[in-house]
Amino acid sequence: MTVLEFDAVTKIYAVRGAGQMKALDDVSFTLRSGQTIGLVGQSGSGKSTIAKILTQLETPTSGEVRLDGAPIPRRGKGLRAYRQQLRMVFQDPFASLNPYHSIRYAIQRPLELDDVVPKDQLDDEVRRLLGRVRLDADAVIDRRPHELSGGQRQRVAIARALASRPKLLVADEPVSMLDVSIRLGVLNLLADLQREHGLGVLYITHDLATARHFSDEILVLNQGRVVERGPADDVILNPQNPYTRQLRAASPDPDSYFANAAGILGGEK
Questions:
Q1: Structural class in CATH, domain 3-264
Q2: How is the chain split into domains, by residue range?
């Protein structure tokens, strides 16, 4: 079992003309294989800072991130091996895919960099990954991102994230830029892949309805601090913190949300 520990992490940024800003304040959680943790909060709550620290785009001011008990390397082969174990699915599937390269290239590149399969198996593996995310490989493999719909682009981004055969995924608002008619299909795909591959998934969102539906545990983040945590149903149905109650009141009813999404799912592209 792969275990990722985010231990007592604080992140402080220096802001020109305004001193310091504490983006994270003593945040801790543990993500294990086969588990989905929903990280919920409004914009500016610190969610994206956590994603940046996990992907080593930022370093903590204090605290530590550990994978299977070992601190995350900051450079060299150790950092590369860590990044192969933890991949990210970004919010905007168009911005995260190079518009000048084909879908084949986007997925084949991490396969080559991480030596996942022999060179003579690259094409078969690209096609297998496209099939895993329920895309017709023949129809999309030689297209550019702008030739695909938003839902198709996000599926390509998921296939690319899976190419290195990671143990953990960080999904940062993966459906917030998609039409409601296709969100449920992409989230169900992520949930299926998580179960089939035993992935640990950190699902970052401002949407309590989807967080409850797809998470085992939810952490509620406000101004850089975890103000509430627990099993998904407990946090959403019986929130204890006033901030969580405000989020709950401002969110759609989860049951009607998914009923409506399922009713228009046939329009997915």
A1: alpha beta
A2: 3-264
Which distant-in-sequence residues (6+ apart) come within 8 Å of 41 by Cβ? Answer: 47, 206, 220, 221, 222, 247
State pLDDT tens for residues 234-243: 998 999 999 9
N-term to C-term CA, the chain: 36
Instruction: Give the predicted TM-score (pTM) of the model.
Output: 0.89
Q: How would residue 253 be classed by pLDDT, with cut points 50, 70 and 90?
A: low
With b meaning 16 or more CB within 10 Å and e meaning fewer, what string describes 235-254?
bbeebeeebbeebbeebeeb
* Whether 205 contacts 212, CB under 8 Å: no
Nearest CA to 81 out of 67, 97, 102, 100 is that of 67
Closest CA to 49 of 163, 188, 202: 202
Locate 214 and state its tokens: 């797809």
Name the E strands within 72-136: 86-89
